[in-house]
Design goal:
By secondary structure, the chain is mainly α. The protein has two domains: 223 residues, Citrate Synthase, domain 1; 101 residues, Cytochrome P450-Terp, domain 2 (Cytochrome p450-Terp, domain 2). The protein is built from 16 helices and three strands. A three-stranded antiparallel β-sheet has the order 1-2-3. A hairpin with a 2-residue loop joins strand 2 and strand 3. The chain starts with 16 loop residues before the first strand and ends in a 16-residue tail after the last helix.
Length: 362
């Protein structure tokens, strides 16, 4: 029997993360995701995924210094970005720049943790460099006294962000560091399984993330919320979409059959932001109305908000433009991709699935 899209097929053993879709649990290296977002930083959680354990004070300091030292974009990559068409989307820019990084050092097999740290550290600077250029603003070089997420916002906006905004974005980025054998992670592991280099594997993952069915959902949520805000009636807008058979962006998940634990964490973080009551009220009202309508129109489906719904609300609250949603998702998921590439390399077997021929034989 064929499982289309490999649904339900186990493709690898992993100790990186575990998803229990029936009960709404996401675990990184044995730690429940909600406890990680409450107690630990981006760097601490990245260390956990890369090294398999939480860092002590000294190890955390070393990792932070490594990440800070790898933030600076090489001149040749700046030159490449400068000469890319202005119409090129940000995901394509990231893909091109990371691919070019492969010529700056020895990235041959096997992949290393140092390479994973460097690639992860570079992506926010690539995004900020391109964004400032498109806005006609001078590039803001990375600050070596700021941690990863705070520095990202600093480079984008040219000023040190509010602590609440940094924490909100950090929560989102921790939640999206890793999520099992999703499409982009699988594509990275397939590339790595050929004993290709880590840059090639990550570039493959970025290309997969670019697809709107994988990394583009938060932008769709913003469009939905903006439409409801304009019309002023959440129920009529949502009911009309559902009646016409449209998918509600930000609702339902292929894995989670109950509440997405990442959405719950983001909602809780949004509740902590001051001065955003109007947007928060809209998001909560839309969630309540949509869940009720989905239960009425699609009974038994158990459709709830997913991480993209409250990710969009967080991004709106911190004034991050929609075109940066998927690139920011990519900046965080670099940790998970590289963790999987490293794991693949340690016990490698090339992926070679079969296909079911449905053509004619003459």
């Amino acid at each position: 029997m064929m499982n289309k899209g490999l649904k339900g097929i186990v493709a690898a053993d992993t100790s990186i993360s575990h998803i229990n879709g029936e009960n709404g649990h996401l675990i990184y290296r044995g730690y429940e995701i909600r406890s990680l977002t409450q107690k630990y930083s981006f760097e601490e959680t990245a260390y956990l995924l890369w090294y398999g354990e939480l860092p002590n004070v000294e190890a955390l300091h070393v990792l932070k210094e490594q990440m800070k030292s790898e933030r600076v974009i090489p001149d040749n990559i700046k030159c490449i970005i400068d000469h890319l068409p202005l119409s090129m989307d940000m995901m394509s820019v990231i893909r091109t720049a990371i691919s070019a990084e492969g010529g700056n050092a020895d990235y041959s097999w096997k992949p290393t943790l140092a390479q994973a740290i460097r690639l992860t550290s570079l992506v926010p600077t690539i995004i900020a460099y391109r964004k400032r250029m498109l806005d006609g603003k001078e590039f803001v070089p990375p600050r070596m006294d700021l941690d990863h997420v705070e520095n990202y916002l600093y480079m984008l906006n040219g000023k040190r962000p509010l602590a609440a905004h940094t924490k909100a974005l950090e929560t989102y980025m921790i939640l999206t560091l890793e999520h099992g054998m999703n499409a982009s992670t699988f594509s990275a592991r397939v590339t790595a399984s050929t004993e290709s280099d880590i840059v090639s594997a990550v570039t493959t993952a970025i290309g997969t993330m670019k697809g709107p069915l994988h990394g583009g959902a938060p932008s769709g949520v913003i469009d939905l919320l903006n439409e409801i805000a304009f019309m002023g009636d959440a129920e009529s807008v949502l009911r009309d979409k559902l009646t016409r058979g449209e998918k509600l962006m930000g609702f339902g998940h292929r894995v989670y059959k109950t509440h997405d634990p990442r959405a719950i964490s983001l909602k809780n973080k949004l509740l902590e932001l001051d001065g955003k009551d109007e947007w928060l009220d809209l998001a909560i009202r839309v969630e309540e109305t949509a869940v009720s309508l989905l239960a009425e129109i699609k009974p038994g489906r158990s459709l709830y908000t997913n991480v993209e719904f409250y990710a969009a609300a967080i991004m709106k609250a911190i004034n991050m433009n929609a075109e940066l949603f998927t690139p920011t998702f990519t900046a965080s998921r670099m940790v998970g991709w590289t963790a999987h590439i490293l794991e693949q390399a340690e016990n490698n077997t090339i992926y070679r699935p079969q296909s079911n021929y449905i053509g004619v034989i003459k």
